[in-house]
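re: the backbone from monday

yeah here it is again, tokenized this time
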């Protein structure tokens, strides 16, 4: 890819030491002795002011690679008496807690460097953190005397760009560090940050350039002047170089950008996201340092239960916790990852209940619904060795410093290879230590999925990051922020925004539509008290600030994380414990006991947005029913599972099951009994149906004759393409069936397919109460997929909920106004009222355009579903329709169990699965007797 190149030269330690000040080099030798691989590749390049993306394992020293060149230069400036009161280094973290870790890990080295320098007269290098948690007093201090190294979040950075004092202190920043870049690139927080970086870099260059801004000129003369500016910038870039690769250096004024991640791919795409785009659309120059293979990864799959099918639920749970306890007791420190916050609380409570005093003070819960104080307390106790085990959902995936961790346990599939490696990478913090991870599975589908995932993890076959393209709601915020800065020429603003990689394809017309909306051109919105926030002269092609309230609106409403109706949980003494989703809090009645933060609480009463509780240690809890979206299977892992199914099926065509199990155990490093369980699963499927795979779609028609004509017709579509793509297919299919039958069918979706079900008696036109081949052909028609899906989604809850999010980000609904923030419930009511108006403004209105992009491409995966149906139409995927069956095939059992039981209750799912397996066993026995 033009502009992106991989680092190929690893410097020697002496070469790197020669670049450092004697005091810094002496301190580093005494503290670490030698450099790590990412430091040998990156420090010299950063010293030469090259943009760098560093991908390296946890504990490999990549973070200090980013800081070492900058700290060295700041120390030299301090020695020369030239260290000014301004920000030199900007460090952007996706987590507030991660920023606090970095401050601690920087202040200690800086203190040691100054101590080794044996000089008390040197001005100190200041490190500061600026987030939403920063106190007003500290903010005022930072404005008066800015830190030289400023640590912040994407949301706070966007606000700082409009801050009169600290914003000016950023105008001469030299280094920008983006940590954990994988956690930002694939979502709107990343688009938010990308625009902030372009705005910041433009301001840095403008602060160094005495010429008037481009907005002072217009038309042909303005374009000609900007062309001269670009040529002069290129000449500066060439003049500033010192070496054989001038193209790999940044502009003399443009800050150096440094990206850090342990698990991200593809690296060229992420590098382009980090550094942005040139006017011709090519990525700017960036050097990629890839040292991910340096660290050993030890991942294995374990089956706690000897029988994944027939073991009663309590027996299966007991086996799971015995296995988990054994793993924890064999190590000093263990992190256990669940996939939900509710699961985290359940595991903590079960460990305490089953093993008593062993875990009374030795286990803690860590997730996003807990208060900051609760989370920090758990982190510190783990670091000090006071906790043997911490159970978390995803909040410890990123590089929060929790000290040495010996083992990571994953309860079930993490649904993606990158996520698995990110989690397992928390174990073995030093580069020479292996990262040890164990995945515990309790059902056959999970066993197959995790078998494939573990192999891909050992091979480091990372999932592909998919960067959202042109989110218009985020753009609206930044256009408003830009208007606060100065008057803008439309062409100049368009060029700046397109410099951010997520907006490289932004059309001028889309930008104009956003400006028209922000300027208050829609009378229909004014009737709903949505007013203009900037001025836009479309004929002159210019826009700028409008009124005094634009700045506070921007300050208090910037950000992309939606406000949900969550209730604060507070003790009667006033201590904040955490949060519960509003839907769950509304169901509580006095005396109810629930689990939160690893403890149990009794509900007493509630006020607006607040739940009052008192502690009830040892009481049996009702686990909070968090309604977080289930994690979908990544595209790459879904494809790998489909290919695995096909290959194992082909082997069973050639070899007997025992031979296949032996191959599987050896080839995938699987426990022999687990390998035999996988093969048994496939043998049972083959006995009654074909094996669905990446090249075979199996459709099962099952007719339940029970209930005196009140039975159901069930259709299972085995599409191994992931939950989000299957969600799109299922909703479109439900629309087709509803048109054919005149009745809405129920839908159940999983990563491996979807299920449609309806009562037989509801048919109006169906033949014999079932769907004909032509209806199934309509369901699988790629040409009608989008239209049927959009029609079926109109007015649905997912569209309403996503519109609330888009409306908040697009400033249609203000979360805060005049310093007053309303409860999320009120904002939701406002969004519902606005939705009817916005729908009437047409599909090109920015909010509607972004709504459908988000629903179809982020909440669901319409492009992948479309591609799958096109492969079906091209006969690249075989379609097998199995009619008039009285029992679904084993590969459909989990869908059938979820459709017929409370999918949130483990015990009910297990009971439904056992019943289906028992019916299958009786059927096979009867068929064998007939034969």
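seq for it, each position gets an aa:
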């Amino acid at each position: 890819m033009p502009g992106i190149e991989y680092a190929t030269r690893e410097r020697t330690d002496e070469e790197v030491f020669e670049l450092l000040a004697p005091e810094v080099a002496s301190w580093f030798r005494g503290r670490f002795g030698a450099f790590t691989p990412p430091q040998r590749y990156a420090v010299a390049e950063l010293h030469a002011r090259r943009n760098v993306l560093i991908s390296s394992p946890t504990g490999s020293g990549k973070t200090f690679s980013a800081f070492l060149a900058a700290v060295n230069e700041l120390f030299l400036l301090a020695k020369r008496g030239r260290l000014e009161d301004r920000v030199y280094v900007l460090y952007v973290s996706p987590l507030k807690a991660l920023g606090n870790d970095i401050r601690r890990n920087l202040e200690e080295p800086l203190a040691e460097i100054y101590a080794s320098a044996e000089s008390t007269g040197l001005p100190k290098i200041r490190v500061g953190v600026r987030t939403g948690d920063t106190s007003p007093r500290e903010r005022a201090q930072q404005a008066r005397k800015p830190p030289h190294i400023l640590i912040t979040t994407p949301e706070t950075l966007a606000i700082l760009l409009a801050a009169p004092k600290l914003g000016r202190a950023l105008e001469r920043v030299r280094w920008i560090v983006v940590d954990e870049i994988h956690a930002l690139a694939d979502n709107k927080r990343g688009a938010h940050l990308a625009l902030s970086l372009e705005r910041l870099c433009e301001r840095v260059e403008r602060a160094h350039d005495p010429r008037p801004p481009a907005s002072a000129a217009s038309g042909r003369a303005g374009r000609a002047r900007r062309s001269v500016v670009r040529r002069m910038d290129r000449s500066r870039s060439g003049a500033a170089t010192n070496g054989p690769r001038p193209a790999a250096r940044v502009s003399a004024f443009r800050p150096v950008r440094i990206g850090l991640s342990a698990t991200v791919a593809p690296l060229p795409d992420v590098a382009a996201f980090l550094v942005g785009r040139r006017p011709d659309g090519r990525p700017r120059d960036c050097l990629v340092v890839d040292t991910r293979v340096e660290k050993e990864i030890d991942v294995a799959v374990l089956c706690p239960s000897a029988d994944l099918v027939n073991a009663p639920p309590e027996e299966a749970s007991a086996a799971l916790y015995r296995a988990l306890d054994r793993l924890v007791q064999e190590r000093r420190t263990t992190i256990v990852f669940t996939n939900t916050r509710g699961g985290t609380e359940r595991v903590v409570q079960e460990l305490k209940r089953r093993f008593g005093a062993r875990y009374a003070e030795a286990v803690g819960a860590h997730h996003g619904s807990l208060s900051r104080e609760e989370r920090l307390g758990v982190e510190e106790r783990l670091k000090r060795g006071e906790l043997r085990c911490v159970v978390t959902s995803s909040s410890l995936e990123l590089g929060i410093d929790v000290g040495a961790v010996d083992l990571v346990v994953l309860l079930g599939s993490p649904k993606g290879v990158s996520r698995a490696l990110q989690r397992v990478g928390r174990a073995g913090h030093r580069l020479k230590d292996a990262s040890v991870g164990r995945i515990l599975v309790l059902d056959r589908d999970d066993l197959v999925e995790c078998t494939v995932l573990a192999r891909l993890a050992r091979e480091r076959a990372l999932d592909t990051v998919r960067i959202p393209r042109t989110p218009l709601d985020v753009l609206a915020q930044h256009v408003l922020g830009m208007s606060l800065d100065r008057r803008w020429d439309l062409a100049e603003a368009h060029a700046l925004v397109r410099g951010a990689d997520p907006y490289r394809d932004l059309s001028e017309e889309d930008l104009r539509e956003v400006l028209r909306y922000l300027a208050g051109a829609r009378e229909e919105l004014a009737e709903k008290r949505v007013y203009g926030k900037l001025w836009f002269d479309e004929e002159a092609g210019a826009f700028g600030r409008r009124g005094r309230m634009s700045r506070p609106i921007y300050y208090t409403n910037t950000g992309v994380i939606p406000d949900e109706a969550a209730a604060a949980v507070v003790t009667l003494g006033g201590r904040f414990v955490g949060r519960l989703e509003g839907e769950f809090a509304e169901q509580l009645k006095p005396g109810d006991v629930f689990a939160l933060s690893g403890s149990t609480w009794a509900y007493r009463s509630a006020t607006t947005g607040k739940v009052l509780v008192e502690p009830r240690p040892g009481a049996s809890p009702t686990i909070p029913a968090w309604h977080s979206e289930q994690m979908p299977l990544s595209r790459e892992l879904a494809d790998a599972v489909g290919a695995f199914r096909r290959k194992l099926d082909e082997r069973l065509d050639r070899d007997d099951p025992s031979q296949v199990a032996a191959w599987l155990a050896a080839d995938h490093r699987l426990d022999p009994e687990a390998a035999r369980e996988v093969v048994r699963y496939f043998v049972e499927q083959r006995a009654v149906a074909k094996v669905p795979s990446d090249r075979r779609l199996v459709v099962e028609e099952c007719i339940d004759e029970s209930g005196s004509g009140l039975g159901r017709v069930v259709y299972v579509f085995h599409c191994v393409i992931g939950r989000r793509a299957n969600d799109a297919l299922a909703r479109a299919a439900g629309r087709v069936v509803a048109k054919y039958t005149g009745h809405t069918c129920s839908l159940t979706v999983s990563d491996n397919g979807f299920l449609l079900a309806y009562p037989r008696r509801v048919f109006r036109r169906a033949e014999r109460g079932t769907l004909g081949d032509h209806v199934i052909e309509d369901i699988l028609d790629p040409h009608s997929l989008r239209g049927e899906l959009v029609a079926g989604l109109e007015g649905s809850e997912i569209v309403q909920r996503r519109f609330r999010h888009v409306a908040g980000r697009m400033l249609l609904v203000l979360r805060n106004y005049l310093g007053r923030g309303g409860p999320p419930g009120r904002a939701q009511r406002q969004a519902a009222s606005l939705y009817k108006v916005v729908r009437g403004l047409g599909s090109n209105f920015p909010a509607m355009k972004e709504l459908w992009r988000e629903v179809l491409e982020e909440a669901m995966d319409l492009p992948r579903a479309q591609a799958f149906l096109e492969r079906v139409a091209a006969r690249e995927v075989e379609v097998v329709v199995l009619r008039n069956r009285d029992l679904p095939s084993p590969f459909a059992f989990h869908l059938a169990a979820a459709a017929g039981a409370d999918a949130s209750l483990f015990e009910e799912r297990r009971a439904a699965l056992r019943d289906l397996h028992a019916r299958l066993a009786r059927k096979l026995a009867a068929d064998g007797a007939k034969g």
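The first strand starts at residue 4 and ends at 6. The two ends are 63 Å apart (CA to CA).
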